[in-house]
Amino acid sequence: MNRPEPAVVVPLWERIAQRIRAAILSGELEPGAKLIETELAERFGTSRGPIREAIRELAREGLVTELPRRGTLVSTLTAHDLSEVYAVRQALEAAASRVVISRARDDELHALEAHLRALESPPPGAGYLDQAVHDLAFHRSLVALARNERMASMYEQMLTQTMLLLRTAALENPSLRTDLRRAAHRDILRALLDRDETAARAAIEAHYRYAEERLFPDVTVR
Question: Does residue 51 or residue 1 have the better pLDDT?
Answer without folding.
Answer: 51
